[in-house]
Batch of 2 targets.
Target 1
Amino acid sequence: MNNDKLIIGGHEFNSRFILGSGKYSMKLIEAAVKDAGAEIITLAVRRANTKEQESILDYIPEGITLLPNTSGARNAEEAVRIARLARELGCGDFVKIEIMRDSKYLLPDNQETIKATDILANEGFVVMPYMYPDLNVARDLVNAGASSVMPLASPIGSNKGLATKEFIQILIDEIDLPIIVDAGIGRPSQACEAMEMGAAAIMANTALATAGDLPMMTSAFKNAIEAGRKAYLAGLGRVLTRGASASDPLTGFLRD
Amino acid sequence: MVKINGEELNVAGKTIAEYLATTNYDPKRIAVERNGDIVFKSQYGETLLQDGDSVEVVSFVGGG
């Protein structure tokens, strides 16, 4: 397990838990980094506020990889502008492409996401596109130069779990890049299930931020992700289509 | 007038460095875009704001 690294765009990570920081507090970041070992935290880019002197960067320890997203972008052009601004903010070359035209369900626009991936990968970004799980789109993202693919499990912030399970499994089976399940994971069991399926990592925010005891839930997610990863590496036991198969010897006991 | 983060300001003729000096922005934690193109930090002193320019000054916030 010690050599089991998550590799994204040539960068190695030990943790397979990515923290979204939309709903953030010192407590969440501390729990995620110190207790759950998160090494990647997402950020958004917004118009700077001259009155607000506090910055989320004050809360994030050294050595954490920052993953700026392009939230707020409605098309590829806006996503590219946001990504370039994020890089100019001086925290590395990673970018999570997030393009949404719809504010009710916040579903990603796959076609614009492919365009933005192509442009940004050519500019040297480590591109991690958030997408609606579709094999053809995932293949286009690979060809466009993506470093991972981030399919949604269910709508952002819904905590509804693996609604797109079958389609994420297809991506895991067919796409030769880390598949990172992003959005909608609400419980540790769902994170564990996605990892058992072969997902490379889990991104979560709302599931932690809205939990009763935030540090305890963060720790539960850490354990679930690690358990799921181990189960995947171990190889799951087979499932019988019908009947039963004794796990104990049935012969030679209390009978001739 | 120059539109900065959506607000019309009377700063045409100033450089970006001169404009930023009149604000409370933390220069280490912002990025500047002028008319859709990044203005690198090294260019703040020589980039003149012109009438009709549209400027964005951004920073990181929490986000998924």
Target 2
Amino acid sequence: MASKNSLMTWIDRRLPVTENLERHLTKHPVPSKVNFFYLFGALLMVVFMIQVITGIWLMMFYTNTEEGAFASVEYIMRDVEYGWLMRYMHSTGASAFFFLMYFHMFRGLLYGSYQKPKELVWLFGCFLLFLLMAEGFLGYVLPWGQMSYWAANVILSLFGAIPFIGESLQVWIQGDYVLSGATLSRFFALHVVVVPLLMIALVVFHIFALHEVGAGNPEGVDIEKYRDKTGMPLDGKPFHPYKTFGALPAIGIFFIVFFAIVYYAPTGGGYFIEKPNFEEANFLKTPEHIAPVWYYAPFYSILRAVTFGIPFLGITSKFLGFIIFAASIAILFIVPWLDRSKVQSIRYKGIFSKIAMIMFATSFITLGYLGTKPVNEIRTFIAQICTVFYFLPFLLMPIYTKYEKTLEVPDRL
Amino acid sequence: MQITSSVVGAVTVAGFAVPFLSAWQPSERAKALGASVKYDLSKLEPGAMAVVEWRRTPIFIVHQTTEAIKNLPSLNQKVANPALEEGVSRTINEKFSIIKGVCTHLSCAPKYYPEIEPKAWDENWKGGFFCPCHGSKFDLAGRVYKNVPAPTNLEVPPHSFEGDTLIIGEA
Amino acid sequence: MLFFISLFGNTAGENKCGELEKCYSFNSSVHDRDSLQRGLGVYKNYCSSCHTLRYLRWNRLQRDLDIPETVLVDDLISNENVKTSDFVTFGLPEISPIGAPDLTLRTRVRGDDWIYTYLQTFYQDTSQATGSNNLVYPGTAMANILIGLQGSQELDSDGKLVLSSKGALEPEQFDSAMEDLVNFLAYASEPARVERERNGIYVILFFVVFTAVMWLLYREYK
């Protein structure tokens, strides 16, 4: 024991391990009462690890050329021992990542996890969503199936819609006049190195910023107000072992669902891995119906809902669609400055905040459903209404949060 | 001095950025693949369409029937931009339409439906192209219909004729 | 009413069986080894003269379907130049000159229902170059190769298929032969599926135990 202590002292003099462990784990206070919504952060870390590890292994067998990509995926699926498991874990992991991310962020919206002083935590989180969307898109191109190719084509031509610089920008991103092997290999580099590195950095920032300002709770109570003699908040518990051990059963349940999908429904009925993607990319033949994977469907729906432009400004419907599509993600970044409410949690906010959240969630889900379906007039019309309902809760937020009647927040949890 | 060194620093960063950003431009090999292709028009029957590949995009070559050419002006009400630039079928040749088979909406490949009959997407279909992705409609000359997602007519690639031979890629 | 149909209904592009409103429903299973072997037999006799299985290896097939070495080398491969580790191409070129698609991943692209229905719904049609047409895939370039087994079908005025002359198999026998074939193709599209579906339950059970243990740990610290 003595030698261990002196070893720790030696290390701590040079690298403050003990101090940081205490600061971030054993003495870091977290609210003692939270609900299941507060487990998604931990699960996201688990999924991130799954993606990194399976990703590294897939990279060992994958070929990032136009000629070899598709066949190398089949090589992984057939000839590599447990290659199929790696691939299905990676593809299912992508869906799980988004699923958890959406719930994690919806938690933030419900319980005001973006309010002062947590603005930076929220901002880093929004950047992570953006990076995750980019990562998922880049990764979906790699198997070089029909859907990889044509979905990428659709998204890349969005850049082409930007006035003046659009076309040369598109060619620059593609590295060719059309989507080709040049695009594939740079997407590979971005997918396996650049974006994951940025994501790791942002996760670190996200967590450090969170530990600086303290985790929230569903009541919106400030637990820092009342402390015991040791300085631990009365409504707080140390992160380790309480929060860590609390997350373990949730991780177990997550793995049950995750492996049930990996083993019994790896393509998710065509929503996780789409059927046309089992056919090699063919640039002369468009699939009958181009649908995004489920996790992009809401945003794709918004993109398609814009069927009109602003002719007198020279804005085409395609470019306006791109702008509104980008705005649907960008608006999340400014939520901390849109909310003027005195209280954090939806539990103590007024009726308008509650209606707004229901409106937002309903339109997000409806847009998601519509995004996977081919368009017709009625669907486009509903998508347009839902797009408005998607933005309204945010655009009107400064007004209704300021004037609506809120309830008194209790002192203690 | 701080300002000067900041400027020098910025120039250094910008200088380093140039090769890295330029590396993303199409390589010489990609440019070489953009060379022109030839097609023998004599084997294409009226009403038929051939697809040739140029710069890895499908190029539609349609041999228009006399009926189709006659129908084109009647569609002027329905298309967004009725002017038939470069001749009746948008090419320098009266009989052939040379069109890039890439939807101007989001780059899908439109399908060729030359028959004049009611279709699921149009009861008064006069023949043309229909994009299965997002439902854009074009007539046989590649002109875009009104109120569809595609903003502009299907593009006409640079091309020229040498007797019966069509050269795509050289105007 | 119309509103809900166009909102939730399917248009042609998203229908499982294209123009055909309803597929014959069939879900493949890869766990009946006899069925897979019979399916391989049908494949060898009727499909292999045009279609390759270019991602499937002979020796994988041998191991998974439990095929004796002599049967594999003499009856199935019957070509001295082909090694058992080669892909199942039946000596066909990589890209078919007549445009017959490779069938390895076909059931994953189209779905079991589509393939099963496609095989069942050929009918005589003199307007087609091949003399036959298909309900799921109108204008298909594939000739009705199964006519000898199924017998010839005609399309009546209601758009229903009627058997006009008998084939070598009774309708039930033909159905079961097609089921075997689709099972085999489903196996070829993902050989790992056999192992995957067999072992998944143990992985899930392990995590049930994992969750229980972790729950108890959590209770101790609550």
